[in-house]
Amino acid sequence: MQKSTLYLVLLVSLALGLAGCSDAFRQRAEVIRRNYQSTVAERYIAEGDRLLKEGQVETAVLAYRKAVDVSPAAAIMSQAERLAQEGKVQEAEGEYNKVLQADRAYDLALHKLADAYAGQGRRRMAIIYYRQAARLGDADAAQAGARLADQLKAPSLLPLRWQRTLGGDNVPAGLAASRSTLFVTTNRGQVFALDLQTGAALWQGQIAKSITGAPVVAGGLVLFGGDDNVLHALQASDGKPAWKSEEAKAQIFAGPAVGDDTAYFGSADGNLYAVSLQNGNLKWKYATGGPIHASPVVREGIVYFGSVDKHLYAVDARKGTLRWQFPPEGAEEMLDAVEYTPALAGERIYFGANNGRIYALNRANGRLIWVASAGEAEYGRLAVFKETVLSSSGSTKLVAVNAFNGQERWSWKHEAESFLKEPVLFESTLLLTADRDSRVFAFDLSPQAPWQKSPVRSENGQLLAIPSWKLDTGEWVAVAPLVVENTVYVATSDGTILAYSLLVKEPPGPGSAF
């Protein structure tokens, strides 16, 4: 835009704020504003087209979104959608006509954004924008949206028990469950309680500006931390505040661990806090040399947790005194930041670090048993299945190593090199999800699994795993799924919660997608 035009727009904006401005002048100012915004929207569309040709799909999506958001038609479209939802059809149609009068590029931006979402596997997001474009008379968008809707309605071999959308642009941050209720925290600081069997909303509350971790359910309470530096405790029955701990001086990224009558949680201020489960009063705190980003784990009177200060700690759960740390003081062994929860199995503790290694320690004294290479940084919780340690989080590769000596048993790499979330075990099946991917991958870990009976190996002779099946949820998966009894709960980035039954008469065939 030329400086002279911009100067004119500024003058017009100033003039509109002055008393006595004529109606004709106001109308002229509105025309200038709309033309300018429409031109900006068209530039964003052109930028998105260029990025798409270069294969930069994710950046192209952002450009198309900007084209939609900056258009002068956006506010009118919002009003039209609200009227349509209220059943005021004629009034809505009038507003839809105004949309096209306001910006000739708006329907094109909607269609292109929908196409980009569909290309990413984000079918539910694509349907939203196809339908908006269709309401403006785009017949091709109507057909594309109908095709995707039919795909989502198609039955799958994992029966969908229920589906619920949270709304309000909420992106799930974590899931937890009691016997009858599913709890969901979101990036917008809200907590939702849904009936575990039906998905019906029980209660919801706005608690913080943002919540980055999963909640924890214990003692009739729902516990979680937020970017307000507070550990919140709500009554699980109705969502009413029970207490809150304001001891932390920085963000709490993850939920606490609970042992007996105490909740243990870390903060970016470098401290691990122990507070009463009854009232939130501080019992003790233990200082480390760096932020604590993950939930601790408590077992048999000891709290285990990692820190960005490149140590794993074991602290007495009652007194808050150090039992041991790894590496020990003065040791030559150089670790790296430990940013997630360790896994305990028998007398050993397993954890990953940002140096791309997995460590096995003696749980009683912290002595190193073995160290293995995972190939990439480790940000997530490990899973232990019988004699195998499984690692994925923060990496693009799932690695299985021998729990006794750390030798690699097999691996699997995501084809698009998306970062994997933490693995989730259900009996002898491992469920895995990834960033920017709408699928849930399942791996049969039993010795009878077809891929283990007829092994496929890489060029260097390593055994490669093959997913037993892949479930497409229709939208990018936001957090690791949650398994409760025979149901897997999946939260997607559009704020939808889906409950799939894991009880199927005939399991899917190897590698099948549905």
Describe the structure concisely for a colleague.
The protein has 514 residues and is α+β, with helices and mostly antiparallel strands. Helix content is 25%, strand content 32%.
Provide an overview of this structure.
It is built from nine helices and 35 strands. With 514 residues, it is of the alpha+beta class. β32 and β33 form a beta hairpin. It is globular and about 75 Å long. A five-stranded mixed β-sheet has the order 26-27-28-31-35, with no helix packed on it. Strands 1-34-33-32 form a four-stranded antiparallel β-sheet, with no helix packed on it. It has a four-stranded antiparallel β-sheet with strand order 2-3-4-5, with no helix packed on it. Among the domains are: 3-153, no CATH class; 158-167 and 423-514, Thrombin, subunit H (Beta Barrel), CATH 2.40.10. 25% of the residues lie in helices and 32% in strands. It starts with a helix and ends with a strand. The longest helix has 31 residues, at 23-53. α1 (3-16) packs across α2, α3 (57-70) packs antiparallel against α6 and α7 (123-135) runs antiparallel to α8 (139-153).
Reading side by side through the largest sheet, how are the strands ordered?
Answer: 26-27-28-31-35
What's the number of extended β-strand segments?
35
| Low-pLDDT stretches | 1-12, 509-514
Q: Residue-averaged pLDDT, rounded? A: 86
Radius of gyration of CA atoms, rounded to a whole number: 26 Å
Residue share in helix: 25-40%
- Report the sheet-strand fraction: 25-35%
Taking the alpha carbons of the first and last residues, their distance comes to 49 Å
